[in-house]
Amino acid sequence: MKKLITLATFIIFVLMAPSITYAQKLFGYEAIESTFDQSPIPASVFGYVTKNEKTETMSFGAAIWGEEEKVTADHIFRIASMTKAITSVAVMQLVEQGLIGLDDPLNNLMPEMVTIPVLNKDGELIESDDIITLRHLLTHTSGFGYEFLEKRLQNFNKEGWQFEDLPRMDKPGEIWRYGTSTDWVGKVVEKLSGKSLENYFRDHITGPLEMHSTWFNVPEDLQHLIVSYGIKTDSEFSEYRRIPIRKVTSYSGGGGLFSSPNDYLKFIHCILNDGAYDDGYILSSETVKKLFNNELSENFYLTHSVPEEEFNPDEGALNSTDGHSLTWALAKGHGYGFLENDTEVLLDNYRKGSGYWLGLYNTYFSINPNHGYGIVTFHQFLPSGDEDAIRLYLMFEQEVHKALVQEKR
After folding, report:
1. Number of neighbours of residue 211 by Cβ within 10 angstroms
2. Other CB atoms closer than 10 Å to residue 265's CB: what's the count?
3. Model-level pTM?
């Protein structure tokens, strides 16, 4: 699998994102349609929601590759790591209830996690009794990585391995490393609530927000809405099995959900509305702010995750032998829910203070509380960080910003 998109490539796409005159149709519809048509992507859905609940979507292509039915914002996609934001909200609900503190040691609650050894750079396993906290998990500073990103984990001999996760790669609090931390957050939610993550979400988040298409196990009567997904090779697409044949019994808080664009826009709207919805709130406004506020020191990424010797400015790429995730590269920090963006290279600096993330199969979202809107762009294929998908994501985001913010000045 190709590695995630590099810093330089991401910046190039940002700077190349076109300045198109606002079309009379839905926010740049003709420009988005033209760019989609010139790409090999088989299907895409775009949508935005504002704080005052104005929502619009646009869709292109077929829901099931090779068939005539058009994809819509009600079709169901594998959203992978976009699950993380919902899991983070779930555990912050428990923090608000006083069931756990952000800095409480998890050693007694989660011994199956904290006893996992550390795999050092020499390939040696080091036993550890380090204190791991919820803050470490939420900010990806717990030491856990993802095998598909980390050569050290790929080369690790798993024969006879008895633990529930692969070795940690760092001591807690040392560096930011994208990995399975949010899966462990989901397990914390399950232990404290006494419910499966599926049931907890239905009772406290997706149910109240009427996100009726968002599930780990999509109900049989909704499975016809699941879209095709697969892998792109040389502009051609090979499809995987569309509908799962087995029910999930172990719920991945880091990447297991199915959802629709319309459902995820409901979640974004609630966050934009400071955690409130028609019948109550899922989080307090004070806690919602913590989802965006950077919880890492100003120089944390540069000093720890990307040592200066690992960055080659001529190539615009990271030379990390550990395969660090590169999706955070334009970010200034990490809150309890999202990467926090504070870059100044974008149009009108419009992303300042926004939170964003992506899913493995090229689903993307951003939430911009400063300007009161959020967007989603949903595609459904590998490899992650596809150039055409990134181009469409940034293009749509800029068109929405121009229409909602710039032209009102």
Report:
1. 23
2. 25
3. 0.87
